[in-house]
Amino acid sequence: MREWLVAAVAEAAGVDPGTVDPDRPIAELGLGSRQLVTLGAGLAELTGRTPDASAVFDHPTVTALAAAALHGPGAGPDPRPDVPAPRPHSGPAGEPPGPVGDDIAIVSMACRFPGGADDPEALWQLLAEGRDAVTDVPPGRWNTDGLHDPDPEAAGTAYSLRGGYLTGIDRFDAPFFGISPREAEAMDPQQRLLLQTAWETVERAGIVPGTLDGTATGVYVGLYDSGYLAAAGLDRLDGHVGTGSASSVASGRIAYSLGLQGPAVTVDTACSSSLVALHLAARALADGTCDLALAGGATLLVTPRGHVEFSRLRGLSPSGRCSPFSADADGVVWAEGCGLVLLKRLADARRDGDRVLAVIKGSAVNQDGRSQGLSAPSGPAQERVLRAALDAAGLRPGDLDHVETHGTGTRLGDPIEGRALARVFGPDRPAGRPLAIGSLKSNLGHTQAAAGIAGVIKTVLALRHETLPASLHAGTPTEHVDWADGGLRVVAAAEPWPRDPQRVRRAGVSAFGISGTNAHVILEEAPDPAGPGQEPA
Fold it and tell me: Pro residues bias: where (predicted)?
């Protein structure tokens, strides 16, 4: 039966039978729905059963389909005897979860950020060196003829094209993920980047990705439309562009590639997208919806429309330098990036001997509502989300040492955020211990949908390296924040943040969307190792 199926699939796909992997979905060979139905009909004729159009879709691999044909539709999915059984950290979908708790462990991280920060270690090196990764637009990225114009009123142009750019966004190993070159070309590069980073995140946790197939693992991704192929003519619509450009598919593609059966959710709340995704993932773990979760987000600047649009609003930094909370702040600098973390209930992680990088103590999400304007930041709403996250974590404002701010380097947004922080953290701040604040955007620029998760990864690295990195270009602090009485200070130079046997180190991470959706997450240093799989932070 298996041999017959391999031959039939190969004939339908026009490939050599030796290239058919019996444990990969048949559709990955390029077979469409009609061909799959025809294959199912041929199989029914061979076995003498009534044709069942759903059989090929219910059992997507040759191995699974052969088992169903021989033993009946109840034979179940592909047993894949050659793949090790999943580790106990993530049970099959639908299996009752282990003990549910509110503390969520971060057990792995992976990222791609500007300045060659292609993994967390390289990102920390960039931070430790105090580097600014903002550059001119890479050659060949866009057609820049006539695009740059110093006049902010010049329609269709941008007065600055500087940003935090990734390199090699066109590189993608499509066959590795069972994707045809034709489909890969139609995929938004953000989907490709997320897929690669998800695989790496799982591997960095010491997990063989194939062992997660069939488990209750969730995917929560922050993403918004990049405009890829938006101007493509109707003749380019070949059946792959729809899924390739749909943001909703980004999370589903990761789940499909790894065989994950927990929730797969794509979040678009603009600049807060990835932090909202992290909040949703943590809640899903806490309530038992899933046992393991990938969370994060990505942004790629595949068109210059963000630069052009913000030039009309005079929101871009003419200097091409992001200077959060500085008197020299002159606007936002756009950037690219991708970051994902792997989450697990802390009790389960300690039981299984996982390496815990940091702990999510609490988080909150809210909305500005009817504020000064649809896209204008709201100080009162930011206060509310900060207090809600503290309440969720069961903490007081004085329990935090640091906040990785939204801090975009704008003359309006930074003072509003600074005053909100001062109102929440200032009144009860211990004498001589002002809240340290900083912004990764001073190094990378504003990575938009990925900004929240970028701040989380930076903060986890700071906890583990026991150092608060410098927030660049701080200069003279803005006069629109009461630094003296507000209990705040900008981390203008790197400083030690050592473990203290008398108190636990904690920090918050903020992200505020231009949509009006705000998020704040509170992180805590990893607990002492509880088993042989743990490492000291």
Answer: 76-99
Instruction: Tell if the pTM clears 0.70, that is, is over it.
Output: yes
* Catalytic annotation, residues: 271, 406, 446
Give the model confidence (pLDDT) of 416-464 as tens digits. Answer: 999 999 999 999 888 889 999 999 999 999 999 999 999 999 999 999 9
User: 2-75 architecture in CATH?
Assistant: Orthogonal Bundle (1.10)
- SS3 readout for 111-170: EEECCCECCHHHHHHHHHHCCCCCECCCCCCCCCCCCECCCCCCCCCECCCCEECCCCCC
Question: What residues contact 220, with CB distance under 8 A and at least 6 apart?
Answer: 251, 263, 265, 267, 277, 278, 280, 281, 284, 293, 294, 295, 296
| Sole residue written with tokens 């010491």 | 206
146 forms bridges with which residues in the sheet?
Answer: none
159 Cβ contact list (under 8 Å, min separation 6) = 148, 149, 150, 151, 152, 311, 316, 318
What CATH number matches the domain at 104-525, 3.40.50.150, 1.10.8.60, 2.40.40.20, 3.40.47.10? Answer: 3.40.47.10
